[in-house]
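Mods, move this if it's the wrong board.
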Amino acid sequence: ARAAEHAAAAGAYLELRNRTRIFREIDLLDPGNPERLRECLHWLDATRNRLNQTCPKIGRPDYECAKAGIEQGESTHRVDQAAA
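Not the wrong board. Structure tokens:
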């Protein structure tokens, strides 16, 4: 059950990421309707806030394990290195 909750949360965050990318890479290219852009930005913000409040939290041991993996380079991608 816990894995299903985390999978659902991951899907919701993925949807938010995809909608944010569309907003950034498509919607902002045509700023002809600033009120619509403002509404979309407020929706993205409200959705993120709701997800942060309602999604299951990660336990400290799992966090520490993931942090150690990141520090060891397990999650390093080319795009991360270009930004560094």
